[in-house]
Amino acid sequence: MQEFLKTIIKEAGAIAKGFYKEGIEYTIKSHVGDIVTKADQETSDFLLTKIKEKYPEHGIISEEEDETHKPEAEYMWVIDPIDGTRNFANHIGMWCTMIGITKNNKPYLGAIYDAMNDELFFAEVGKGAYLNGEKIKVNKCDDIEHFYTSFSAGQLRNDSPYNSDKDMMKRYFKFYENLMGETGHWVTNYSTCLSLAHVCVGRMDAFINNSGLYHDYLAGSIIAREAGALVTNADGEDWEKGRHDIVIANPKLHKKILELF
């Protein structure tokens, strides 16, 4: 299953990259910030077809599908064909293809493919995390004043699937106020979980987000844990399906980050 996953995610990334190079048309789903391209749908269709052919008994959740395929299946594939669609549609090369797999409702395999840079981040629970076959680890940064983070406080929009809990959003604003302090802080957000993968390999120090769904977080959470990160919600509990809020960093830095909430 691992090699099949690696193969189809790279093939899916190549399909999306082909659209990216040829030109992109998009339509709006729920609002102007929630868009879909032909590439999203065709990449999703490709993955669904391949998985159903290879593993007809498996379940599938895709961002581009309204219903879950075989919701009671032992294995569930959770797909985001193009994460960072707004970047993709505006010809910004920060996007990726993500697939997470659960077994009996527990995390099992995770893969994130950055087609623009041909980087495949991969992990199997209990067996470590890898980038293009080389083992990776989160870095050891624990400098709360200078750590490099990707941050999103979320949004309150009833017309959006990313609509946040009002109280949690207030906590994220409080976190940001504490983070900035009197001296400011380096913060970036390029609207994709590709930044989560960069935390896994040590390029960035933390991923602090309140605007993601299950398909956004599953694959990256598996890779991050296998790379040595703590993956929790803003309350410090293990992140689980259904929570928009997530905090990912190495254990020492993670503890300091939670104190800012």
Summarize the structure.
With 261 residues, the chain is of the alpha+beta class.
How would you describe the overall organization of this protein?
With 261 residues, the chain is an alpha+beta fold. The protein has two domains: 135 residues, Fructose-1,6-Bisphosphatase, Chain A, domain 1, CATH 3.30.540; 111 residues, D-Maltodextrin-Binding Protein, domain 2 (3-Layer(aba) Sandwich), CATH 3.40.190. The protein contains seven helices and 14 strands. A seven-stranded mixed sheet has the order 3-4-5-6-7-8-9, with helices on both faces. A five-stranded mixed sheet has the order 11-10-12-14-13, with helices on both faces. A two-stranded antiparallel sheet has the order 1-2. A hairpin with a 4-residue loop joins strand 6 and strand 7. The radius of gyration is 18 Å and the shape is globular.
Descriptors:
single chain, 261 residues, alpha+beta, Fructose-1,6-Bisphosphatase, Chain A, domain 1, D-Maltodextrin-Binding Protein, domain 2, 2 domains, seven-stranded mixed β-sheet, 7 helices, 14 strands, globular
